[in-house]
Amino acid sequence: MNPKTENFLLAVEGLTVSFDGFKAVDDLSFYLDPKEIRVIIGPNGAGKTTVLDLICGKTRATQGSIRFGGKELTKMKEHQIVHAGVGRKFQNPSVFEDLTVFENLEVSYPQGHSVMGALAFKRDQAVIEAVEGIAETIFLSEQLNEPAGLLSHGQKQWLEIGMLLIQKPDLLMLDEPVAGMSVAERKKTAELLRVITRDHTVLVIEHDMQFVGDIADRVTVMHQGKVLSEGSIDHVKKDPKVIEVYLGH
Amino acid sequence: MKTNSTFQWLTSREGVYYLLLALLLVVVLPLSLDSFRLNMVGKYLTYAFAAIGLVMCWGKAGILSLGQGVFFGLGGYCMAMFLKLEASTPEATKHQSTPGIPDFMDWNQLTELPWFWQPFHSFFFTLIAVLAVPILLAFIIGVAMFKRRVGGVYFAIITQAIAAILTILIIGQQGLTGGVNGITDLQTLLGWNIRTDAAKNTLYFVCVALLFLSLFVARHVQNAKLGRILVAMNEQENRVRFSGYDVASFKVFVFCLAAALAGVGGAMFTLQVGFMSPSFVGIVPSIEMVVFCALGGRYSLLGGVYGALLVNAAKSGFSESFPELWPYAMGALFIGVVLAFPNGLAGLYARYIMPLEKRLPVLGKYLDKDDSVEPQAPAPVSDQLSAEKP
Questions:
Q1: B4 interfacial to chain A (CB closer than 8 Å)
Q2: Residue B76 contacts residue B320 (beta carbons within 8 Å)
């Protein structure tokens, strides 16, 4: 084991997943520093979402390793990966529409995650304060007692981000957080991400280059399951290979 | 403090609904029905246990089991084995070639009591077994299925297959189980004759008490965070998983809970009806239990109870006049419920009758002050939301 990898929060090395011979992710390596904001861009089918699936355990790697804070994630179960400190937001907003906003956040509160724990869980002051605090961050203080099903698309996206934040993860993974949002909602989301990125490491998939430029420390460009280019936004924008396959002339 | 909050609950909308059910079961029905009819209501109520279990398992967590008859039957058989052993004293069976064993074993040339019958000499063991045997089987099925992420229709089909397998097993092993006739001729419980009217009346009240106990257990689970996780799991399983929950263990838990409730129902069935047979175990009774739950309202615990009562009362009334038509009527009822009012009677009540409650002379005043949306009777908004689900 390379001791240098231990300095990274997340070290992905030689990661490969093959679906019936098709390599969606092919010998991929990248490293994330603590508190870094990394954006993955790339054309459709480049394997961006699959990378997030592999990190959070939804998909199992065929080969390679994912080291996170000294732990090997490829061998762990999904809920163990969450407890290790990895939060994942899905592309489509997945919130619990039958539950209220408060209950949505409460379910994600990092306590009482075993069956018996969930049975004994009490809604104490600490929980209420945590939920109200997060609700304020995600602009949903007014909607706490509404069923999440009544929220707008953008509000659902925020709620799901809030559900991640309340878990206090070390690494937040967001899959297209501004897709389908209005201009006003995009602005607010960028603002929200700026707040979040103060004390989290964030891995984002996004297409909106304006938005990417606003938030990214570094950008990884993926193409056909491999890293095509990596560096600052200006660096990748000038890279002829990136212009060729993704940005266009 | 404690009594105060209990009092507050009893005067809340939900509390009043529970009180009304208690009034119906403890006062109105016993006063208005003769012993025979009351015993029949007691029998219907045993299905309500299974229906409550299905509300938790299917309504809340979205796990449709078409094999609840298995657990009902296991609970019932456990109790029947105990009662049969008590009835098979050496004196009572002295004409058999092997006295002291159940009559059907003697007919099948068995000469000693099988090993798994031995512990059922103990009433204490039997009481534990009524809960433990269904839970154990549910646990094994649950772990085997849910850890492998088997769910939905596949799970329903497997539970139905298990119902068929258990029926075939019971019928095939006549010497060990009493076969197709079941375990019959049950007389006494710890020396107390359970066939008298007085005993049947007492058993009815025991059944009602246990039903309320089960309702409170289910309600406690539903109102704990566990209950919200079940609902959440039903909707967005992956979101729950990636919020740090081991989804499979929650499914196993609720499936075991439903099995335990069905088991208690089965044991009370045996006590009140006086026998147990494979016809209460197989596919048809299992599906009937789903119908009780669907008609009553699969999101509502009290709905499950009323569903079991009403469908069974209809079944008795209908099959007394047109016995061969009942299966068709029930099938039509089920299709009608699913198409016309997927949230069952509880959904209809919440949408059409709840708004009228304010006009009630005495009760209206109580109900009016508490307009909170409570879990067992969804208000119109959540009603519509859940109706939109496929």
A1: no
A2: no
pLDDT tens readout for residues A58-84: 999 999 999 998 889 999 999 999 999
CA gap A203, A219 in Å, rounded: 10
**Which structural domain range is residue B52 located in?**
38-281
Q: Kindly state the tokens that stand for A45.
A: 């089918």
CA distance A61 to A17: 5
The total number of structural domains that make up chain B: 1
Q: What is d(CA B132, CA B74) in angstroms, rounded to the nearest whole number? A: 10
Q: Which of A93-102, A207-216, B56-65, B235-244 has the lowest mean pLDDT?
A: A207-216
The token pair at B164 is 């068929």
CB contact under 8 A, A96 and B238: no
Report CA-CA distances (Å) from A133 to A41, A126, B3, B146, B249: 32, 10, 34, 35, 30
Judging contacts by C-beta atoms under 8 Å, the chain A residues touching residue B371 are none
Of A125-129, B96-100, B132-136, B218-222, least confident by mean pLDDT is: B96-100
Asked whether the beta carbons of residue A79 and residue B241 sit closer than 8 angstroms, the reply is: yes
CATH topology for A3-247 is Rossmann fold (3.40.50)
The size of chain A, in residues, is: 249
Q: Is residue B388 part of a domain?
A: no
Residue B142 lies in a domain: yes
Q: CB of B55 within 8 A of CB of B261?
A: no
| pLDDT value at residue B302 | 94
Sequence letter at residue B232: A
Identify which has the larger pLDDT, B369 or B42. B42
Q: Please give the ipTM for the structure prediction.
A: 0.87
Is B382 an 8 Å CB contact of chain A?
A: yes
Chain A residues with CB inside 8 Å of B241's CB? 78-79
Contacts of B374 in chain A (CB under 8 A): none
The alpha-helical segments, DSSP class H, found in chain A are 48-56, 78-84, 101-108, 115-120, 125-137, 153-165, 183-196, 209-215, 233-238, 240-242
Distance separating alpha carbons of residues A102 and A147, to the nearest angstrom: 9
Q: Examine residue B254 and state whether it is found in any structural domain, yes or no.
A: yes
DSSP 8-state class, residue A222: E
What is the C-alpha separation between A84 and A98, in angstroms, rounded?
Answer: 28
Task: Look at A79 and B225 and tell me if their CB atoms are within 8 Å.
Answer: no
Distance, in Å, from the CA atom of B183 to the CA atom of A183, rounded to the nearest integer, reads 72
Q: How many contiguous H segments (helices) and E segments (strands) does chain A have? A: 10, 10
pLDDT for residue B390 is more than 60? no
Between chains, do A167 and B243 touch, taking CB under 8 Å as contact? yes
Query: pTM of the full predicted structure?
Result: 0.89
pLDDT tens figures, B276-304: 999 999 898 999 999 999 999 889 999 99
Query: With an 8 Å Cβ cutoff, are A96 and B235 in contact?
Result: yes
- Residues 259-318 of chain B with CB under 8 A from chain A are none
User: Of A90, A150, A167, which is closest to B244 when you measure between CB atoms?
Assistant: A167
Position B139, amino acid: F
Distance in Å, alpha carbon of B248 to nearest chain A alpha carbon: 10
Look at the alpha carbons of B197, B202, B205, B211 in this order and tell me if their dihedral is positive or negative: negative
**Most confident of the following: A205-219, B117-131, B308-322, B366-380:** B117-131
Q: Which of A53, A73, A78, A160 to mutate to test the interface with B (most CBs of B within 10 A)?
A: A78
Amino acid at B229: I
Predicted confidence (pLDDT) per residue in B77-135, tens digit: 999 999 999 988 888 888 888 888 899 998 888 888 999 999 999 999 999 999 999 99
